């Protein structure tokens, strides 16, 4: 069970590259606009602080995973001990049994100078399993609800981003004098208002047509079980880094040109809620960390290597956001939409513009089925007994949950195409739960559980450097404060 096979293992540096690619995804495309709204000074401080908070909770996930491994090993030893006692009735056999059990136990419980081998990261234990081990029924229900809400938000953001990207490729470019408030009423194939021509096809209609087409193509995958292949991951990863490199290069080219540049403010607190949601969404990796950490061969200094990874990601985000915020006077919620195809006569530049605009379509289309299947499985875990899944009728098993997975995000993005609002809600509420609250509650209850099970003298070498209970209290207070501030901001915008 689970110790990873040697053939599937990789070095810590390869693991950090995977974590880097996991974190630096489509969420990074929302940072430039958020930076421009909140101001470069406030944004820099907020991003660095939220990177630290994300790293802290990543160490909580690692510690909890080590605790789960210790619990499984302890249970295995107890099972071996019971089986040995039952299988051997004579005194000689019992003595031999006890000696064999001691041989198994000895490498696991060592002296004070050598950490216990109960704690390891060999077995992959997902967040759902951790919740089942360490949380009560209410805690498990809250975990699955939070995870499902986050995945619903993810699917909504993916669908809206793809549909908007397709719309901007199909429709004519928007006039520089146009405002965000009336883009949906514009004719798709010219810059005039559609209201003057009843037969005109509007940009909003094009957006909805692209959304329904995307759902029709990708939606059926939720009825199946599909997994990303290694080559598909390599392809999408290469596409992502090529796109980021081109966007940064083009922004730098604009900055060194003679045209006037944007001058975002240093501090604008009205843009803080959107920035908070974008940053939390951009540093999200905690729900997928176990799958990437367990195959790493040597995990001795995993925390140190992970901190270097977070530092590099923060620098990359700052470069992407700063170049975009100062190069463009107007920034779209999705950064790639600032590179929509124009009437440029340079064929090479037109190809680059089409590639950048369609970049979310390529990458998100490969991720959408995986997220949808993950959501479907978690919905089943929340409402059904997965140990007897086959005992339920066909409609419940094969039809109801796939439909419930795809339809709500489709309806939401059909009437709400504002990506910034989707990210603000997903990152600020569900993202706070997944990235801050769940890891904190898990690690607190895991420590208590293992202390009662193994004793206080058994050392966890993967213990978070932020193990003082004051850090956990700080995370909880910070999360509550952020949720309150974001809620107040949303209420003020509605009223």
TrEMBL record:
Topology term for the membrane: Multi-pass membrane protein
Species of origin: Galleria mellonella
GO cellular component: membrane
Record carries keyword Ligase: no
Tree of life domain: Eukaryota
Residue ranges of every copy of the Amino acid transporter transmembrane domain listed in the record: 10-65, 223-446
Family: Belongs to the TMEM104 family.
InterPro entries cross-referenced by the UniProt entry: AA_transpt_TM
The keyword Ribonucleoprotein appears for this protein: no
Name of the molecule in the record: Transmembrane protein 104 homolog
Membrane spanning stretches: 12-35, 47-72, 142-163, 207-226, 238-258, 270-289, 310-331, 351-375, 395-416, 469-491
Subcellular localization, as worded in the UniProt entry: Membrane
Sorted UniProt keywords: Glycoprotein, Membrane, Transmembrane, Transmembrane helix
């Amino acid at each position: 069970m689970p110790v990873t096979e040697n053939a599937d293992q990789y070095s810590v540096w390869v693991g950090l590259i995977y974590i880097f690619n996991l974190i630096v995804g489509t969420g990074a495309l929302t940072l430039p606009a958020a930076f421009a709204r909140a101001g470069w000074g406030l944004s820099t401080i907020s991003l660095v602080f939220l990177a630290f908070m994300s790293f802290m909770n990543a160490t909580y996930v690692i510690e909890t995973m080590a605790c789960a491994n210790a619990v499984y090993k302890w249970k295995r030893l107890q099972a071996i001990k019971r089986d040995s006692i039952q299988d051997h009735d004579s005194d000689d056999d019992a003595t031999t049994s006890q000696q064999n059990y001691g041989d198994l136990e000895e490498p696991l419980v060592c002296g004070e100078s050598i950490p216990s081998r109960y704690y390891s990261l060999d077995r992959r234990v997902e967040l759902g399993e951790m919740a089942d081990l360490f949380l009560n029924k209410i805690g498990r229900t809250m975990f699955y609800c939070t995870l499902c809400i986050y995945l619903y938000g993810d699917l909504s953001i993916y669908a809206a981003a793809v549909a908007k990207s397709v719309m901007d490729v199909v429709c004519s470019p928007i006039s520089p004098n146009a405002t965000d408030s009336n883009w949906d009423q514009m004719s798709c194939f010219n810059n005039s208002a559609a209201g003057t021509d009843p037969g005109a096809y509007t940009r909003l209609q094009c957006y909805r047509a692209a959304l329904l087409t995307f759902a029709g193509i990708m939606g059926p995958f939720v009825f199946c079980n599909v997994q990303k292949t290694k080559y598909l991951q390599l392809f999408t990863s290469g596409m992502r880094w090529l796109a980021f490199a081109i966007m940064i290069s083009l922004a730098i080219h604009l900055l060194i040109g003679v045209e006037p540049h944007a001058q975002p403010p240093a501090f604008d607190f009205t843009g803080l809620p959107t920035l908070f949601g974008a940053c939390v969404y951009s540093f999200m990796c905690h729900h997928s960390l176990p799958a990437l950490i367990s195959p790493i061969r040597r995990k001795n200094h995993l925390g140190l290597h992970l901190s270097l990874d977070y530092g590099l990601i923060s620098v990359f985000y700052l470069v992407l956001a700063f170049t975009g915020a100062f190069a463009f006077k107007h920034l779209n919620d999705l950064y790639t939409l600032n590179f929509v195809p124009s009437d440029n006569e340079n064929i090479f530049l037109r190809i680059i513009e089409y590639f950048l605009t369609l970049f979310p379509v390529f990458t998100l289309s490969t991720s959408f089925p995986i997220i949808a299947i993950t959501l479907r499985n978690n919905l089943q875990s929340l409402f059904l007994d997965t140990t007897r899944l086959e005992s339920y009728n066909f409609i419940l098993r094969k039809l109801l949950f796939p439909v419930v997975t795809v339809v709500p995000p489709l309806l939401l993005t059909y009437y709400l195409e504002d990506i910034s609002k989707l990210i603000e809600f997903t990152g600020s509420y569900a993202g706070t739960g997944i990235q801050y609250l769940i890891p904190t509650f898990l690690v607190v209850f895991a420590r208590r559980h293992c202390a009662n099970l193994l004793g206080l003298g058994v050392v966890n070498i993967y213990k978070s450097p932020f193990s003082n209970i004051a850090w956990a209290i700080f995370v909880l207070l910070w999360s509550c404060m952020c949720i309150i501030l974001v809620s107040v901001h949303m209420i003020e915008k509605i009223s």
